[in-house]
Description:
The complex is a heterotrimer of chains A (459), B (275) and C (417).
Chain A: H1 3-28, H2 40-76, H3 80-83, H4 87-102, H5 111-149, H6 156-196, H7 199-204, E1 208-209, E2 224-225, H8 228-259, H9 262-277, H10 280-301, H11 311-336, H12 339-348, H13 352-381, H14 384-389, H15 407-415, H16 424-457
Antiparallel strand pairs in A: 1-2
Helix pairs in contact in A: 1-2, 1-5, 2-5, 2-6, 4-5, 6-16, 8-11, 8-13, 9-11, 10-11, 11-13, 12-13, 13-16, 15-16
Chain B: E1 26-37, E2 40-51, E3 55-59, H1 66-73, E4 83-91, E5 94-95, H2 103-109, E6 110-113, H3 124-135, H4 141-154, H5 158-161, H6 174-186, E7 192-196, H7 204-217, E8 222-226, H8 230-236, E9 239-244, E10 247-253, H9 254-259, H10 264-270
Parallel strand pairs in B: 3-8, 3-9, 6-7, 7-8
Antiparallel strand pairs in B: 1-2, 1-4, 4-5, 9-10
Chain C: H1 3-40, E1 45-54, H2 57-60, H3 68-73, H4 76-87, H5 94-101, H6 107-118, E2 126-132, H7 135-141, H8 158-169, E3 173-177, H9 180-183, H10 196-227, H11 232-246, H12 249-263, H13 271-295, H14 299-307, H15 312-340, H16 344-348, H17 369-377, H18 383-412
Antiparallel strand pairs in C: 1-2, 1-3
Amino acid sequence: MNAATLTGTILLLAMAGFYMGRARSLQTAGGDAKKLHSLPGYHGTYVAFWAGLPALGILGLWVGIEPFIIKQLVISGLPADMQTLPQNRLALLYNDIQNIAVGASSSKPDAVLRGAADHYSTLRATGIMAISALTLGMGAIGLAITRARIAPALRTRPRVERLIMVLLIISSTLAVFTTIGIVLSLIFESLRFFEHVSLNEFLFGLQWSPQTAMRADQVGSSGSFGAVPVFTGTLLITAIAMLVAGPIGLMSAIYMAEYASPTARGILKPALEILAGIPTVVFGFFAALTVAPAIRDAGASLGLSVASESALAAGVVMGIMIIPFVSSLSDDVINAVPQSLRDGSYAIGATRSETIKKVIIPAALPGIVGSFLLAISRAIGETMIVVMAAGLAAKLTANPLEAVTTVTVQIVTLLVGDQEFDSPKTLAAFALGLALFCITLALNLIALKIVRKYREEYE
Amino acid sequence: MPNTTTPISMTGPSVKAAPNGAPGPVKLETRGLDVFYGDKQALFSVDLAMPEHEITALIGPSGCGKSTFLRCLNRMNDTIATCAISGEVLVDGQNIYDRELDVVELRQRIGMVFQKPNPFPKSIYENVAYGPRIHGFAASKSELDEIVFTCLEKTGLLEEVRDRLDATGTSLSGGQQQRLCIARAIAVNPDIILMDEPCSALDPIATARIEELMEDLRGNYTIVIVTHNMQQAARVSQHTAFFHLGHLVEWGDTEQIFTSPAQERTQGYITGRYG
Amino acid sequence: MSNLSKRHASEKRFRIYGIAAIGAAVLAMVVLIGTITVRAIPAFVTTEISMDVFFDPEIIDPEKTGKREEWLQADYNAMVLQSLRKIFPRVRNRRDRRNLLRIMSSGGGDRLRNMVVSQPAIIGKTMTVAMPASDDIDMLMKGKISRDVPEDARRLSNKQLKWLDALQAKGHVHTTFNTQFFTSGDSREPELAGIWASVVGSVLTLTITLLLSFPLGVSAAIYLEEFAPKNRWTDLIEVNINNLAAVPSIVFGLLGLAVFLSFFGLPRSAPLVGGFVLALMTLPTIIITARAAMGAVPPSIREAAVGLGASPLQVVSHHVLPLAMPGILTGSIIGMARALGETAPLLMIGMVAFIVDIPKSFTDTATVLPVQVYLWADSPERAFVEKTAAATLVLIIFLIAMNGLAVYLRKKFERRW
Lengths: 459, 275, 417
């Protein structure tokens, strides 16, 4: 019996409770459902809830705590000298014990470890038996009690609905907990990072080479964690992307909103939606495979030296990716401008382009600015295109033909690899992540505020 | 098939004199009813009694509060967040704004038909069957069928839709849709039916049919109808109440109100001096 | 009115800019899909070399134990070499023999092993077996490696080319549909690499994502749209959800790393954890679309139900939810499609492993299709380029299908209230 089968059993118990409750309600009403306050189904659901929910709750708690408790117990059973090992060695040791216990270890273990492994297995087995007894017992008791209380006058529908409402409210708070989780974990790990590296160096330092010494006696490679080149790299590529996506996206939106016939719109809009649906890793592959070599060769033929991982390549492809984003947001905004404004302009004899340039765009400007801000936010947070097409070395430059690195690339390279979790190198990724989160959050808030204010003017 | 397990025992109908002293117990009554939307007061201390098995019409110019009044009677105003109510609304002598009262049961006993017909986008059968189903009135499919057919027949729809009970309710004509809504309302076996300008969206022929229907239903239900059409009020109702700017100006026998009203304002409205 | 013609000219220019913009966008998309498709097509065929293979009992089971373990351990590549030497009897010295064998992929040996284990009766018999050629041969046949380069700059020696030509002349060489691409997991050898392991990983991960985000998202949307009082807290929650929808996906990966892996100690690179992370990412999208769909249901329907005595929850479950369901489903499909294509957050939780075996449970180490594309894109062998393109094409097709389904559903069930 493991947690999964136990869950299944509890669910079966709840189902049984449903049928029993429902039958019982009809029974107490002498077979006449009309005598019941609530429909028999509600009586059944009532019993099912009390049979299943408390048990599942306890099971969930146990699944969360069990690993910690068992680890503590097993380690406290080890000889004293082993207990005082440094954290990471102890973790590896515990891992070995676990492997021995499940029979996945290939080496011959010594007696101490063998004993610990047996301890581990016994603890787990007893734990599972205890929790099975507890949860199934709770479920059975819940079922029996609620079933006995069923009577025609019992107002189960409001009770069931209250329970459902509680579940709905819990679901709603999950989103809040996610945000709290993100903020807390980022801040927590970043604070640990800032114990090693000062905030000043991080925010204003110009040198980014996060090679920390692996061993205390290693020569050379002291890490420097000045993130300015990384930030400028992000800005450079984002700027190139917006130079591509901004005009194309906006003009496409204008054309589709004001000029295109309904049939043309019917084809173009889905086409752009397809572009929007292509995953970013595909764009990244395209950038590395086709665009970057093409730009490099074009540059070579013009006598310029272009890096094979130029910011230009990554920026252009990112721009292509963002076009549908800018286009659909601007489209919404332009369509929201009231027809009365257009009518007024045409009635004076303005051409369509004049109406657009002088009436519609100014009216829609806040919304367009908002959509541009959202697009910038998207570009800053984009990962795969730059990971596959941009460089790894941080360079402080404004030249699009050179290779730069971005915040997201650094986060990936710092974490993808066999690093210890709390070396300054990995923690730097969290500091970068925090910076990324704050910047995109600020952009999003400003953008939403602008769009909301603008919408109020017209409603 | 009345629902006998009400939590608060409704005492028998209070024997209160009807407006002009004629016999007939009072089914529905308000005492000192004030209604506020936020800071704005919509109804001012309304005292009105509506007799059982009679049709009471509420008339008055637009914005006078008659729809607001109607919606208080089945606590539909609860759904509006800014609405606040003081005073009493008594059904069979029992205040329906009592904290203990189950509003869901109240709405089974008081049905409502709205101005614009709003059948569910389900089949005709399902529209009528929905209410009985959630209130548990039918123990079997055949009982449910019986309820549905009876109600459709009472509203005169059965002959017209018998062969297409599966068609969606919204595929019917306007008049038929409204009759479907009435059938849906009586399917939960209410004592009282509230109608908020039920014919204003319908053509004259459909209107005539519904007015006929109201007279047929009167024997079994108490009906309160809001209408801006004075001729309709004169045609169908036995009692009439005239509202103006949130005040109940006058009420009494329909005939008396329309031929010799006591208040000048009533006179002015009826003769069309203002609307 | 002398400027009238100028204004008309300006109007015309403006129109052209608009068409040019759309043209550029469409062109970019066509070039993108086009180049990838062109590069991908060669991956769907592969070169095989067939020859007579003698299932030599001396190699398979020299001690005549008759045991399956013996058969599994045997050196099947030796058998392949034997068969090759039957065709080229004059190949003598060691170096030549090794180079001869290098024409074939090690997958040939695997194929022979599978044959023996499933049908032991063939031991001792001779059969004609088609076996995959090495990736260099495959590339040569597809024209990706040129013969004109001098020998030391080439990956295939002159002798190997001679042998290949001889085999071709004798009709041993043919190209066939590359089923291996669809049925096997990753491999160090490009000719043996396939996407099946990552597809299964994607399916497992998305299942968890759907099972978590759909019920939680719809429940939250129901509460927020129909029941929550309008006060500062609910405003805050709404702002919160809108922001979460715009947070870069990599941040969710960091969250997953810090909370699910470090704090809770869940297994790295497991579909379970990937599903959790993607569910958190998809949740805001589903909440927002579900709320919009429910908000579009007209109040008159709610009023009618309330008037009949339905409780608020009954109004929602009997009327609002069924009518809003098409919109909710459309939004969910789009959300799932986005989750399918996500790579960055999964890299954070460790899905960069080299996965050969098909994952069987939610806690086995696995990878997903977009991550597989990323890993292959990094590989130096030329043969991986076409594999990457082919995997990308599969991914694109899946996504276009999902998005197309969503658009179709939206059109079909669109109600004009």
